[in-house]
């Protein structure tokens, strides 16, 4: 017990001495604190986000019992999450005794209004959930009640439960929110409860503002809560008879090969302990892992920089430490003192680093988010973050203390009485570890600069890519029906809108589509030609409903055949226009014009009347997808009559679209039609590159920070060397050496460890760049120009960093230097 008390008292005395030393050097103190806080904050932020995406389970009891069901897609060998209501009813009966099925809808951004007065639309994100959902997940409402069994029955009063965040943001946390009416389209919903904060986030980054009960027979995704001692294989076996019965009940609308493929495939139960399958996880898992590695490399660079600063500080105390050794202090006791003193600084920096982490994480989420559909990732202070912070602090403390402790080992008793060591002793004893740290910093900087260069080039290549349509002078107005109406009514409103918008000043052309290019929407199905000639009879194609004039408005060339016309109405024969990829896929090299195909109903034949050039639809990577265009005013493939639509408006050269006037015209023509947003087509294309932008911006920032830290570390080491070698420089100048010769030799000496580190870093970058291959476009991982450029930038910056302190030798006077200690 006394030994522990003595050790604690000794450590406390060492800390007090260390703080006194640091207080006498405020520039070193604040520089090291700033470097460590920033690098630790960035590392904590990225590690925490990676943990959120990859490792962190939902905050519920027994998350390992959660599984999501996925089924084979109707076409193309893919899997899909959505299940029709008829199949859900069959599966619910099959899971009894194994687990409980919960139906979960997709988050949907809609326009809603509160109160019983005039409809004043405001955006809100709604999502449906099985009435048993909150109870099974262990979520109790903070206010009001949860869902009840009768809420999903036909004829029941529609109810909603608000999220805690939306309740605070929209209603200021007012308790009288219960009973408030929420209006969506023509439905009136009563708010009956408010959820507590920190609820399980089933859809990562897409937390809804309000939950609605999933109606009986409603389709959606399926989440299964397994019973104790039950596994996914038992669940799949229990569901197999119901799945096979469902397949037998479906009409054979596809090809014989496709029916055989579906018959062989089974339902799968995939792990949902971290939430439902998420597009955010699919898109950002690999990029975030790469950036996390980069942040940890930057942390090591910052710790090395801090170690160099602290080593320079302790070098001033060499005489003091040598005297203590001469008086009997053991080397282990002195090393322990230096370790305690130097680890105190990273521990102090951990607190501001932890405060910076949520700010940096918020900036990263903002870079990766569409401003109109922001990701909602609430920062959480929990034990997992505390462990990450402690790990970052431990790494920083270990690396920062290594160099001062190493250099202390070179001090001898005979150095007592000297505040600085002789040049010969310094060269022999302790200066080489500093060069090793500088070499490591240079290698890490090359790795980060090369990675940043590759990802920045990828972003640049994709931005320059031609998507196949005109991006200039194009504005997209996204519409959403606030009230339901018949298809005949909505079609008449759309025709009126096209006519009125065409009359606006500065409008050259206007058209209409089910959704816009790069709007993030997609609908796929396999078409079945009457006389297939291609190799992709079972492959799905994208479908898009467009109005007459769409191709001219978007600048898409018509290769053969005709465009849609006003005559393509509900009463006209069914028509379609294919792009070149769809033509090759389904009809080979033969002419597709005049050929017919079916989609769902084999008796309903659609004739190909035109072929247009290929365009990208929702992403710039990869080839253009096979795309089938259907007449907007004819196609029932659009879905319900109140489905959203997009108006494409091409402005005259030099003209600018008057958005307020456009909004007024739309609201005047159709009071039940709301304008979700108006954006340029170029903006939509750029938003498809959010992942690439995040990677490029953060990777380049990490590389530049590493370059700056490496330069500062080298400059500090050279400055310390120059200050401790004043007498040597004076002797050499007295013997005839020129200041220019001393500066040139100093630069070459400084660039030696940088060059070795650069070479090692370049070799490591060649190896690590292979892991970035899936994120690159238009550039190979081992691109010599990027790697060579990173090395040259580092060497040039190092030369400049070394030159600044070495110019002090030009001011050395031999007579003054020789009179120094």
Automatic annotation (TrEMBL):
Q: Where in the cell is it found?
A: Cell membrane
Q: How does it sit in the membrane?
A: Multi-pass membrane protein
According to its record, what are the GO cellular component terms?
Answer: plasma membrane
Q: What GO molecular function annotation could you give as one example from this UniProt entry?
A: transmembrane transporter activity
The answer to whether the entry has keyword Hydrolase is no
Tell me where in this chain the ABC3 transporter permease C-terminal domain is found: 295-411, 702-811
Q: Which residues cross the membrane?
A: 28-49, 288-313, 334-365, 385-406, 434-455, 694-719, 750-772, 784-804
InterPro entries referenced in this protein's UniProt entry, alphabetically: ABC3_permease_C, MacB_PCD, Macrolide_Exporter_MacB
Would you say which domain of life the source belongs to? Bacteria
Q: Does the keyword Disulfide bond apply?
A: no
Q: Which UniProt keywords apply?
A: Cell membrane, Membrane, Transmembrane, Transmembrane helix
The UniProt family comment states: Belongs to the ABC-4 integral membrane protein family.
Q: What is this protein called?
A: ABC transporter permease
Q: Which organism is it from?
A: Paludibaculum fermentans
């Amino acid at each position: 017990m006394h030994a522990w008390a003595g050790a604690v008292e000794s450590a406390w005395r060492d800390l007090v001495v260390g703080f006194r030393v640091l207080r006498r050097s405020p520039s070193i103190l604040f520089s090291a604190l700033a470097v460590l806080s920033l690098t630790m904050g960035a590392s904590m932020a990225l590690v925490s986000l990676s943990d959120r995406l990859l490792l962190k389970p939902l905050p519920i009891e027994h998350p390992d019992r959660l599984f999501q069901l996925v089924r084979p897609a109707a076409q193309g060998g893919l899997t899909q999450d959505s299940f029709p209501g008829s199949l859900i009813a069959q599966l619910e009966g099959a899971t009894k005794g194994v687990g409980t099925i919960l139906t979960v809808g997709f988050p949907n951004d809609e326009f809603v209004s509160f109160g019983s007065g005039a409809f004043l639309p405001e955006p809100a994100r709604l999502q449906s959930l099985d009435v048993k959902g909150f109870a099974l997940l262990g979520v109790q409402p903070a206010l009001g009640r949860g869902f009840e069994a009768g809420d999903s029955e036909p004829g029941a009063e529609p109810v909603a439960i608000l999220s805690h965040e939306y309740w605070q943001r929209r209603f200021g946390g007012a308790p009288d929110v219960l009973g408030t009416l929420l209006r969506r389209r023509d439905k009136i919903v009563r708010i009956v409860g408010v959820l507590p904060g920190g609820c399980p986030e089933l859809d990562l980054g897409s937390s809804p503002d309000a939950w609605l009960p999933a109606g009986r027979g409603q389709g959606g995704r399926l989440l299964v809560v397994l019973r104790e001692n039950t596994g996914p294989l038992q669940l799949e076996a229990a569901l197999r008879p119901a799945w096979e019965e469902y397949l037998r009940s479906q009409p054979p609308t596809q090809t014989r090969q496709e029916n055989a493929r579906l018959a062989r495939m089974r339902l799968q139960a995939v792990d949902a302990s971290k939430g439902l399958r998420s597009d955010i996880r699919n898109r950002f898992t690999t990029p975030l892992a790469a950036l996390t590695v980069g942040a940890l490399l930057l942390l090591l660079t910052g710790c090395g920089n801090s170690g160099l600063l602290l080593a320079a500080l302790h070098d001033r105390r060499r005489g003091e430490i040598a005297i203590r050794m001469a008086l009997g202090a053991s080397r282990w006791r002195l090393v322990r003192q230096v370790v305690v003193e130097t680890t105190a600084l990273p521990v102090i920096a951990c607190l501001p680093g932890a405060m910076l982490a949520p700010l940096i994480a918020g900036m990263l989420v903002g870079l990766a988010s569409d401003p109109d559909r922001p990701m909602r990732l609430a920062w959480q202070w929990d034990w997992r973050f505390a462990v990450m912070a402690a790990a970052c602090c431990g790494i920083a403390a270990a690396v920062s203390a290594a160099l001062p402790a190493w250099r202390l080992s070179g001090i001898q008793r005979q150095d007592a009485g000297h505040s600085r060591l002789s040049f010969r002793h310094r060269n022999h004893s302790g200066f080489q570890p500093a060069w090793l740290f500088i070499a490591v910093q240079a290698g890490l900087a090359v790795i980060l600069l090369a990675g940043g260069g590759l990802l920045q080039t990828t972003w640049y290549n994709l931005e320059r890519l031609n998507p196949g349509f005109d991006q200039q002078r194009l504005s997209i107005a996204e519409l959403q029906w606030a009230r339901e109406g018949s298809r005949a009514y909505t079609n008449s409103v759309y025709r009126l809108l096209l006519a009125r918008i065409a009359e606006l000043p500065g409008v050259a052309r206007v058209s209409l589509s089910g959704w816009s290019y790069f709007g993030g929407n997609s609908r796929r199905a396999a078409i079945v030609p009457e006389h297939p000639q291609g190799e992709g009879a079972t492959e799905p194609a994208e479908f898009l409903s467009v109005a007459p004039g769409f191709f001219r408005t978007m600048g898409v060339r018509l290769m053969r055949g005709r465009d849609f016309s006003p005559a393509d109405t509900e009463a006209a024969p069914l028509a379609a226009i294919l792009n070149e990829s769809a033509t090759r896929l389904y009809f080979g090299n033969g002419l597709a014009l005049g050929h017919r195909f079916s989609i769902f109903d084999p008796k309903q034949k659609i004739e190909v009347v035109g072929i247009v050039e290929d365009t990208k639809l929702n992403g710039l990577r990869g080839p253009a997808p096979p795309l089938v265009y259907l007449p907007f005013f004819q196609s029932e493939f659009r879905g319900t009559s109140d489905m959203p639509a997009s108006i494409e408006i091409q402005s005259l050269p030099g003209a600018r679209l008057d958005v307020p006037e456009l909004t007024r015209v739309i609201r005047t023509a159709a009071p039940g039609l709301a304008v979700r947003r108006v954006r340029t087509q170029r903006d939509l294309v750029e938003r498809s590159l959010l992942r690439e932008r995040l990677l490029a911006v953060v990777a380049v920032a990490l590389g530049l920070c590493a370059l700056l830290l490496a330069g500062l570390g080298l400059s500090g080491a050279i400055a310390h060397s120059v200050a401790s070698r004043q007498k040597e420089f004076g002797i050499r100048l007295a013997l005839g050496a020129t200041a220019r010769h001393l500066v040139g030799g100093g630069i070459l000496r400084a660039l030696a460890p940088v060059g070795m580190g650069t070479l090692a870093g370049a070799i490591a970058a060649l190896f690590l760049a292979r892991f970035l291959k899936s994120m690159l476009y238009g550039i190979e991982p081992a691109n010599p120009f990027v790697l060579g450029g990173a090395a040259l930038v580092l060497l040039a910056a190092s030369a400049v960093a070394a030159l600044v302190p070495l110019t002090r030798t030009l001011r050395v006077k031999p007579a003054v230097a020789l009179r120094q200690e």
